[in-house]
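Duplicate of #3305? Posting structure anyway:
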Protein backbone atom coordinates (compact mmCIF):
# COMPACT_ATOMS: atom_id res chain seq x y z
CA UNK A 1 0.00 0.00 0.00
CA UNK A 2 1.13 3.52 -0.69
CA UNK A 3 -0.40 6.90 0.08
CA UNK A 4 -0.15 9.46 -2.69
CA UNK A 5 -1.00 13.14 -3.04
CA UNK A 6 -2.11 14.69 -6.34
CA UNK A 7 -0.25 18.01 -6.59
CA UNK A 8 -2.56 20.58 -8.22
CA UNK A 9 0.31 22.82 -9.38
CA UNK A 10 2.37 20.20 -11.20
CA UNK A 11 -0.29 17.55 -11.79
CA UNK A 12 2.15 14.97 -10.44
CA UNK A 13 1.33 12.25 -7.97
CA UNK A 14 3.67 12.52 -4.96
CA UNK A 15 4.25 10.43 -1.84
CA UNK A 16 5.05 13.53 0.24
CA UNK A 17 3.49 16.97 0.82
CA UNK A 18 5.71 19.73 -0.61
CA UNK A 19 5.84 23.06 1.21
CA UNK A 20 4.71 21.62 4.55
CA UNK A 21 6.50 20.91 7.84
CA UNK A 22 6.57 17.21 6.91
CA UNK A 23 7.88 17.55 3.35
CA UNK A 24 10.98 15.52 4.23
CA UNK A 25 8.90 12.42 5.09
CA UNK A 26 6.95 10.12 2.84
CA UNK A 27 3.26 10.09 3.74
CA UNK A 28 3.39 6.51 5.05
CA UNK A 29 5.96 7.60 7.65
CA UNK A 30 4.25 10.93 8.44
CA UNK A 31 1.04 9.04 9.21
CA UNK A 32 2.82 6.47 11.38
CA UNK A 33 2.14 3.62 8.95
CA UNK A 34 5.83 2.86 8.35
CA UNK A 35 7.86 2.63 11.53
CA UNK A 36 9.19 -0.95 11.24
CA UNK A 37 11.45 -2.74 8.79
CA UNK A 38 10.90 -6.33 7.62
CA UNK A 39 12.75 -7.62 10.71
CA UNK A 40 10.31 -5.66 12.95
CA UNK A 41 13.07 -3.29 14.08
CA UNK A 42 11.98 0.33 14.68
CA UNK A 43 13.52 1.48 11.42
CA UNK A 44 11.24 2.72 8.61
CA UNK A 45 11.79 1.00 5.27
CA UNK A 46 9.34 2.81 2.99
CA UNK A 47 6.79 -0.01 3.13
CA UNK A 48 3.39 -0.12 4.83
CA UNK A 49 3.59 -1.94 8.19
CA UNK A 50 0.84 -4.57 8.15
CA UNK A 51 0.55 -5.13 11.90
CA UNK A 52 -2.72 -6.74 12.94
CA UNK A 53 -4.55 -4.71 15.58
CA UNK A 54 -2.30 -1.68 15.15
CA UNK A 55 -2.25 -0.45 11.54
CA UNK A 56 -4.94 -2.78 10.19
CA UNK A 57 -7.99 -4.60 11.45
CA UNK A 58 -8.07 -7.49 8.98
CA UNK A 59 -11.16 -8.96 10.60
CA UNK A 60 -13.05 -5.71 9.98
CA UNK A 61 -11.33 -5.00 6.67
CA UNK A 62 -9.98 -1.58 7.57
CA UNK A 63 -7.13 0.58 8.69
CA UNK A 64 -6.92 1.94 12.20
CA UNK A 65 -4.94 5.09 11.37
CA UNK A 66 -6.82 6.70 8.51
CA UNK A 67 -10.35 8.00 8.52
CA UNK A 68 -12.51 8.44 5.45
CA UNK A 69 -14.70 11.43 4.76
CA UNK A 70 -18.26 11.26 3.40
CA UNK A 71 -16.95 12.38 0.00
CA UNK A 72 -14.69 9.32 -0.15
CA UNK A 73 -11.46 11.24 0.50
CA UNK A 74 -9.02 10.55 3.29
CA UNK A 75 -8.83 13.04 6.15
CA UNK A 76 -5.33 13.77 7.40
CA UNK A 77 -4.68 15.73 10.56
CA UNK A 78 -0.95 16.29 10.72
CA UNK A 79 0.36 18.61 13.38
CA UNK A 80 4.12 18.86 13.61
CA UNK A 81 6.46 21.70 14.43
CA UNK A 82 9.82 21.76 12.76
CA UNK A 83 12.43 24.49 12.93
CA UNK A 84 14.23 25.40 9.74
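Output from current build:
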Amino acid sequence: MNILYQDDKSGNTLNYLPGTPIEDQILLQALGLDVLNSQLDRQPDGLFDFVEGITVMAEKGGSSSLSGSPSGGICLNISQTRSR
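Confirmed duplicate; merging threads. The first strand starts at residue 5 and ends at 6. The helical segments are 27-30.
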